[in-house]
């Protein structure tokens, strides 16, 4: 694998990023396009094809052994399709088949974006060295992924670990997913801001009503802002504890925009975990911030592709 490279795509509602990545997670070539998210499906695919075309123009392309794709979801890896919530033109879109054609027939591995970030954190980041981990992305939504027994565990469709839609409040607000009281409905950035505004928090002169503005207010001691983050922290703690109880993880990694709030979120989260993670086998659970930053999706998609390649090589031996 020392000479192997893989191609990687990170597809979201804002941008489509591509890279050639080496076996150590180093990004050697990059390409990017804005996602034409409101256009029809084939227009979105053309942007993906342009990114792959730019990568294929590199002299290193010939060494690429596979293509890994981390996409906003839901994804269905078993069918090779994607239906990203924020890209309405893609509903059951045959991304794997189209990407394979655009990449000259390379083998393709598709995973959800939460699983991709998990792969990156386990390979190169905060979950490195941990065989059983949950990684969470807390931003506009709440996603995640699992590492179990030292291996990425995407599940049959590539969505395992989607902690945002564990219900933590039986009588809670209806969630757009159709359930009630989901972690995401309490802990996502927009929902933290919504709760703060409903509680009487008011933005500063700039009118910024983002979760980052609520976090700044909480740091300054605003009690409504603090309470909104504390409630988000309790929802996250309940979801993390449920996951740990089910599959015995020993570390939870928190990434995403809301994860960047730091101690405003992590301090009440760690405190709340002591209330929820009470059984002997989950008490040692640690919670840490993500380390991988904006390249996590690309590095994780590459990790998934390299993992497939390594398994194939092992199978051939």
Characterization of this structure:
InterPro entries: ATPase_NBD, ROK, ROK_cs. Belongs to the ROK (NagC/XylR) family. This protein is α/β, with parallel strands linked by helices and 317 residues long. It has a 5-stranded mixed β-sheet, with helices on both faces. A 5-stranded mixed β-sheet has the order 10-9-8-11-12, sandwiched between helices. It has a two-stranded antiparallel sheet with strand order 5-6. Residues 310-317 have low confidence and may be disordered. Helix 1 (41-56) packs parallel to helix 2 (95-102) and helix 5 crosses helix 6. The chain folds into 2 domains: 5-112 and 296-316, Nucleotidyltransferase, domain 5; 126-291, ATPase, nucleotide binding domain (Nucleotidyltransferase, domain 5). The two termini are 14 Å apart. Helix content is 38%, strand content 20%. It is globular.
Features:
alpha/beta; ROK family protein; five-stranded mixed beta sheet; ROK_cs; ROK; 317 residues; 12 strands; Nucleotidyltransferase, domain 5; single chain; ATPase_NBD; 9 helices
Q: How big a fraction of the residues is strand?
A: 15-25%
Question: How does CATH name the architecture of the largest domain?
Answer: 2-Layer Sandwich
Distance between the termini: 14 Å
Indicate the radius of gyration in whole angstroms.
20 Å
CATH homology group of the largest domain: ATPase, nucleotide binding domain
Protein name: ROK family protein
Family: Belongs to the ROK (NagC/XylR) family.
Organism: Streptomyces kebangsaanensis
